[in-house]
Amino acid sequence: MVIMKLLLVLTLILSASSLNAQLKITVANIKKDTGTILIALYNSKDKFPNTNEAYKEGRVKVKNKQAVFVVEGLASGEYAIALFHDQNDNNKLDKSDLGLPKEPYGFSNDAKGMFGPPPYKKAKFNYNGKAIDILISIF
């Protein structure tokens, strides 16, 4: 699985040289200058936010309390994003004994859920194949 993720990251980096429009994801409200932002892009409400069923995945190191991730060559369509700040770089969202996240997380449209992740309809957005910037605040 690690090899597949590395191949995906390499594919995304190599595709950055193309002239296609891009989806730029900027993460706001980063409090610690450590770790990595893990990002999952979904194109189906049935798979959101199951991390094993993301349409595309990526990661970006936090630097100067900032993180920006770019997806190139994305087809037009409806998408949703889920991400979290893996502060200790253990590749998982750490949770408390009660199952509550211990690391900051966020969703597209800054959607929030009650007692769990938000529904897809709150996090979804339309991408028309042109350059778009998405700002997601983590909490």
Give an account of the 3D structure:
By secondary structure, the protein is mainly beta. It has a single domain (2-137), classed as Immunoglobulins (Immunoglobulin-like, Sandwich), CATH 2.60.40.10. Helix content is 13%, strand content 35%. It is built from two helices and eight strands, in the order H-E-E-E-E-E-E-H-E-E. The strands form two sheets. Strands 2, 3, 5, 6 and 7 form a five-stranded antiparallel β-sheet that branches. The longest helix has 14 residues, at 2-15. Residues 1-18 have low confidence and may be disordered.
Structure described in brief:
This protein is mainly beta. Helices cover 13% and strands 35% of the residues.
